[in-house]
Specification:
Layout (H helix, E strand, L loop, with lengths): L7 E3 L3 H24 L5 H24 L1 E4 L3 E5 L4 E5 L5 E6 L12 E6 L5 E4 L9 H15 L8 H26 L1 H13 L4 H6 L2 H26 L2
Antiparallel strand pairs: 1-2, 2-3, 3-4, 5-6, 6-7
Helix pairs in contact: 1-2, 4-7, 5-7
């Protein structure tokens, strides 16, 4: 039985953790240097600020070591910097591996990340259950097997939760679509802004093509229209 492998804990890889700790150790003296070298700063303030900086960086190290995805016989959850969140196995509606939108902008970001969906329709990201820390195929199969075994024989999908999940995903897809189209529209809008520099236009039209008007109205308009179109299209497909 897969649940016999519980408890499970997914943490930051040791290599990444060492790199993070090294960066924090290097950043601490750099942050303290201005405070310690400026003579005009009173000794009391210097001491308080220095202790605060050391405490902050120490807390970052502690928090990075503490953060994890956990799974036991009762629930799957996340232990974060500030709090713990858990979803009982019988309340889990799905566990999914999804494309990470940040991967398009950050080369070091994982391509696939994992979410657990609860009965309230919200999704909770499972840190370190991604394609940079684990074998996604193996760990996803394990978590799905554990969920199937522990959710109870009388478990059934919650229809209301399914609607909430679909609508939440539709909203998130709409936001991503709007941002993508706004980014794609940036260069064409710049080209439109340059038109008055090379062409004589009526005064009214020239004011409409001013940078403030084009960027202040054009970008938000592209975002809103494409996001709404994406959201309505997603709702029709539900």
């Amino acid at each position: 039985m897969s649940y016999e492998r519980l408890p499970l804990e997914y943490r930051m890889s040791s290599g990444r953790l060492r790199l993070l700790i090294t960066m924090i150790l290097l950043a601490t003296p750099a942050a303290l240097l201005p405070v310690l070298t400026i003579e005009e700063i009173p000794t009391g303030i210097r001491t308080v600020v220095s202790l605060a900086v050391v405490a902050l960086f120490g807390w970052l190290v502690y928090g990075s070591r503490r953060c994890a995805t956990t799974a036991d016989i009762k629930a799957i959850g996340v232990r974060g910097f500030f709090r713990r969140r858990r979803v009982a196995w019988e309340d889990v509606q799905d566990i999914r591996a999804e494309l990470n939108p940040a991967a398009a902008l950050q080369s070091a970001a994982p391509t696939y990340i994992t979410f657990v969906y609860g009965r309230d329709g919200r999704k909770l990201q499972l840190p370190y259950v991604d394609d940079q820390h684990v074998s996604m195929e193996r760990e996803m199969a394990l978590l799905l097997d554990i969920w199937t075994e522990l959710r109870g024989d009388d478990w059934a999908p919650d229809a209301r939760a399914a609607v909430l999940i679909d609508r939440r995903n539709a909203r998130q897809a709409a936001l991503l679509s709007g941002m993508s189209w706004a980014m794609l529209g940036f260069l064409p809008l710049i080209a439109i802004m340059l038109v008055p520099l090379f062409t004589d236009l009526p005064e009214g039209l020239e004011s409409l093509l001013s940078p403030w008007a084009v960027m202040g109205v054009g970008l938000p308009l592209i975002f809103v229209l494409t996001a709404l179109a994406s959201y309505r299209r997603s709702l029709r497909n539900l």
